Amino acid sequence: MRILHTMLRVGDLQRAIDFYTHVLGMTLLRTSDNPDYQYALAFLGYDSNPAQAELELTYNYGVSQYDMGTAYGHLAIGTDDIVATCERVRQKGGKITREPGPVKGGTTVIAFVEDPDGYRVELIETKEATPVSLR
Questions:
Q1: Helix residue ranges, H only, 1-135
Q2: pLDDT tens across 21-56, in order?
Q3: Could you give the number of structural domains in the chain?
Q4: Full domain range(s) for residue 77
Q5: What backbone phi and psi angles, to 5 degrees, belong to 115?
Q6: Quick one: which of 46, 15, 11 has its CA closest to 28?
């Protein structure tokens, strides 16, 4: 077994697609619209690794925002150069909420980005990661 995708509910599907494709360099893989059930989906991922889990963005018609709650933590994305990645995210209008630095109590270098719906995305520097192209 393997993880196939993670789903996030978003208040504006195109805005969320734009963030994940333009700011974090993902590729829009496919979309579907289900008017009978009043929702639309978009699946995104990094096309350089087809075995990697995907991100599913779900827009429920008429819902523009959600309460974050206390259970959600974050998505995590590996990058080979976290400082350069953060700089590209900034240049593309992304919001860095934690600058690159070691995780508390460890040596792994991390940073955090916030998407337009308020979801946190952790960037983790892993020298083995496939470089993320932030077009």
A1: 13-18, 82-91
A2: 999 999 999 999 999 999 999 999 997 777 889 999
A3: 1
A4: 5-64+73-125
A5: -85, 175
A6: 46
Q: Which CATH number belongs to the domain containing residue 108 in this structure?
A: 3.10.180.10
Catalytic residue positions? 122
What is the value of pTM for the model shown?
A: 0.86
Q: Is residue 113 part of a domain?
A: yes
Pick the closest to residue 123 from 92, 93, 91, 88 (CA basis): 88
Please give, one letter per residue, the 3-state secondary structure of 12-40. Answer: CHHHHHHHHHHHCCCEEEEEEEECCCCEE
Q: Residues in the chain, how many?
A: 135
Distances (CA, A) of 103 to 4, 49, 114: 27, 26, 18
